[in-house]
Design brief:
495 residues, alpha+beta, 18% strand
């Protein structure tokens, strides 16, 4: 249960902090200038009101996470440093002689206390309110939007490698239980050079044999059998197996891919993060422009201009923010979809891969440029000319389309599924004219300010890779890193 954390025990050694922690130290300034009591208020429903022993102070637990963001380390290494580092103890509100928590409490705090709380929105709104109150950012502001990739912790296995690995673990787990009625020779064998289908068939045969003889009921064997079953189910829909079920493959450049997540971020020109969201790696960047602008408005800002790269100047975004927020983003001629009719239109352009992504998340494998064509016909006895705009045609792997659950109305027959887009659309003419103005060119100069901030979040605040598994863990990690980044910026602006 929650205890009374307002009373602090006086220590005869407390004067050490006056000697070791300077007045301008960031930890002293944060303790003096930031009211962390909002953490306790937000989490009070997660604790019992009258049962059990007093829990560790939620504010102190949250400060542990902030320290982890500032100096990325494992929970165990973080707690070890907190035991000997006086600046850590001062920030945590501990006396010099006090003990620290058990590292397992941090993991429990993340999983149980922070679950079902929109920590990302909460921390951004608190830090943005602080920045507005101190006059660091104005309520009328521009927003600079971009996405940065975050790697998953999970190891990715090719189908054959994963099945061979799990089969080996299952057979090894069976060894202690061999007896006169149960022998290793009772199991089927598989060739060392077996292909994917042969390994699938062998895995199914092995699972059936273990379940028929009852050995799969033993937990040491059954747990691994269940993992192999899950892997086989994944291979029905994916071409790989990974422990992190939420992470997906995305592109970070032509021919370059990553496995993980994306952090979609909106910042002010002062580099204060005012909106953010986390998605799996295959999601299109442009889909998050409108939600980020709306989130920034909810945090008390009036967004005049949304500055971004070509991935965000889609017809959908331009129409959604028309007469509300000016989109300052160059139009990529390939991004337009023209006046498409009677076909699935949820194909999105991925600027990093320079390819389109289908609604099922598959990337096109090649593209062709079709020049403008002039068609001649006779109407009412007179020749008539009609023009077909130049198009870029993208081709998707037909073998994958055959088994796609979204193939109805999208894929018919053939080796490839093609998807064509017009090079120039009337929807973007106004935006193209806007690109030529001095105002557009001046605003676009601000976009580069988000690049060093992305690097700071990844390299200095631990967003390069997920410390656990799942999008909830990645979102929580992103929330603390963004809050820490905003606090650092606010402290820097104040001198």
């Amino acid at each position: 249960m929650l205890g009374d954390y307002q009373q602090t025990r006086l220590s005869e050694y407390a004067r050490i902090y006056d000697i070791l922690i300077p007045r301008d130290h960031i930890f002293r300034r944060m303790n003096e200038e930031i009211d962390f009591s909002f953490v306790r208020k937000e989490l009070e429903d997660k604790y019992s009101t009258g049962m059990g022993r007093s829990a560790e102070d939620p504010v102190r637990m949250f400060k542990y996470l902030m320290l982890k963001a500032m100096h990325p380390a494992s929970d165990e290494d973080l707690v070890k440093r907190a035991y000997t580092d006086m600046s850590y103890k001062f920030f945590l509100g501990l006396n010099p002689e006090d003990d620290v928590i058990d590292p397992s409490l941090l993991s429990k705090f993340r999983r149980q206390r922070l679950q079902d709380i929109d920590l990302l929105s909460l921390l951004i709104s608190k830090s943005v309110a602080m920045a507005i109150e101190k006059g660091i950012i104005k309520r009328k502001s521009d927003i600079i939007v971009d996405a940065t990739h975050e790697l998953a912790k999970s190891i990715i296995y090719k189908p054959v490698d994963y099945m061979r690995k799990m089969v080996g673990q299952i057979l090894k787990a069976c060894e202690p239980f061999y007896n006169e009625a149960f022998h290793r020779e009772d199991f089927p064998t598989c060739a060392k050079d077996a292909n994917v289908q042969e390994m699938k068939d062998y895995s199914v045969t092995l699972i059936n044999a273990l379940e028929e003889c009852g050995i799969a009921q033993i937990p040491a064997v059954g747990n691994k059998v269940n993992l192999l079953k899950e892997g086989l189910e994944d291979l029905e829909h994916l071409s790989y197996v990974a422990k992190d079920k939420d992470a997906k493959f995305g592109s970070k450049g032509p021919g370059k891919s990553f496995y993980g997540y994306k952090a979609h971020i909106g910042i002010t020109p002062e580099s204060i993060i005012v909106a953010a969201a986390v998605s799996s790696g295959e999601v299109v960047d442009g889909d998050y422009l409108v939600p980020l602008v709306e989130q920034a408005k909810q945090n008390g800002l009036e967004i005049e201009n949304a500055i971004a790269d070509a991935a965000y100047a889609s017809k959908k975004n331009l129409d959604s923010l028309k007469n509300k927020t000016k989109i300052v983003a160059p139009v990529n001629p390939i991004i337009t979809q023209g006046n498409r009719r009677n076909e699935i239109s949820d194909f999105h352009y991925n600027k990093d891969a320079d390819m389109y992504v289908c609604p099922a998340g598959e990337l096109a494998i090649k593209k062709e440029y079709h020049q403008q064509r002039i068609q001649k016909s006779i109407k009412n006895g007179k020749p008539k000319l009609s023009y077909t705009n130049a198009r870029m045609v993208y081709f998707f792997d037909g073998d994958k389309c055959k088994d796609c659950p979204l193939r109805e109305g999208c894929y018919k027959t053939g080796r490839y599924k093609s998807y064509s887009v017009t090079i120039l659309s009337d929807t973007h003419k106004e935006q193209i004219e806007f690109e030529k103005t001095p105002e557009f060119k001046e605003k676009m100069k601000k976009r580069k300010r988000i690049e060093p901030l992305n690097a700071h979040l990844k390299n200095d605040l631990g967003l390069k890779q997920n410390i656990s598994y799942g999008i909830e863990s990645m979102t929580m990690q992103t929330a603390v890193a963004i809050y820490m980044s905003n606090i650092q910026k606010i402290m820097k602006f104040e001198g």
